[in-house]
């Protein structure tokens, strides 16, 4: 008898329209445990709406979202917080919390003691190279520093979450405010999480970053998946022309593990 593997995340026939405009139509998406999926597409393709539908911020017109085989809307918020961690494109926080306090917000649902949560937070700050920001007031940080702090927060949320089920990490344009060094640092961390079993889905704009880090890439155009597969199958001149209307040069060289877009 074959063992059927339940996806960590499954979006089934999602439909969403606003003001008479179809944002996505019968969209199906599956994300497996330990997989790093990048979702790309031009402005208005439906990337952000799909992200918000998965997080629960937006309710699709029809269709169902499953987390580890359970309907998302039937899971209580406390359990979702232990399984699903979300890094939005920007997070508004105006109170003068210290950085360590913002990171510790990721441990609010922890079942372990607060001493363990603090140790984990300190470790994550050190690993993400933001330990020097620990006592800084959050509003005084640059945009990039704030993004790195919130990434540390979601890392803590995963660290104290439910390890009995595959966890899911959602990243919405996580590199937008970061310089090139920290773009790679963040995506390296996300890749490492995937290698430990976390299912990672990232909305990205940079085809080269997606090709380098993602196991699979989806190209969205007008709410429809136009291409779905490995970087070498998806990142092609034909697909880029069809989806973005841009005449690109794609270099596939044996010296690189992924295609390079110019």
TrEMBL record:
Pfam families: ABC_tran
GO molecular function: ATP binding; ATP hydrolysis activity
Keywords for the protein's UniProt record, in alphabetical order: ATP-binding, Nucleotide-binding, Translocase, Transport
Domain ABC transporter, first and last residues per copy: 9-247
Main function: Part of the ABC transporter complex HmuTUV involved in hemin import. Responsible for energy coupling to the transport system.
NCBIfam families reported for this sequence: PRK13548.1
Family: Belongs to the ABC transporter superfamily.
Name of the protein described by the UniProt record: Heme ABC transporter ATP-binding protein
Organism the protein comes from: Moritella marina ATCC 15381
Lineage: Bacteria, Pseudomonadati, Pseudomonadota, Gammaproteobacteria, Alteromonadales
């Amino acid at each position: 008898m074959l063992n059927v593997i339940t996806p960590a995340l499954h979006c089934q026939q999602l439909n969403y329209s606003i003001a008479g405009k179809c944002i996505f139509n019968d969209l199906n998406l599956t994300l497996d445990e330990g997989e790093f999926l990048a979702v790309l597409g031009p402005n208005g393709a439906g990337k952000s709406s799909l992200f918000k539908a998965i997080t629960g911020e937006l309710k699709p017109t029809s269709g169902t979202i499953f987390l580890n085989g359970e309907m998302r809307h039937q899971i209580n918020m406390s359990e979702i917080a232990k399984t699903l961690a979300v890094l939005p494109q920007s997070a508004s926080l105006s109170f003068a919390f210290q950085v360590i306090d913002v990171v510790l917000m990721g441990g609010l649902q922890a079942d372990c003691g607060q001493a363990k949560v603090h140790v984990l937070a300190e470790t994550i700050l050190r690993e993400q190279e933001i330990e020097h920001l620990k006592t800084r007031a959050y509003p005084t940080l640059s945009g990039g520093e704030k993004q790195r702090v919130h990434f540390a927060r979601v890392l803590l949320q995963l660290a104290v979450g439910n390890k009995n089920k595959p966890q899911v990490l959602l990243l919405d344009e996580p590199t937008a405010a970061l310089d090139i060094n920290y773009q790679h640092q963040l995506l390296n961390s996300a890749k490492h999480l995937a290698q430990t079993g976390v299912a990672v889905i990232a909305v990205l704009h940079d085809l080269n970053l997606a090709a380098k880090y993602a196991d699979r890439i989806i190209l969205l155009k007008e709410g429809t998946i136009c291409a779905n597969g490995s970087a070498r199958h998806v990142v092609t001149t034909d697909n880029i022309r069809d989806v973005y209307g841009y005449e690109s040069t794609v270099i596939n060289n044996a010296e690189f593990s992924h295609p390079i877009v110019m």
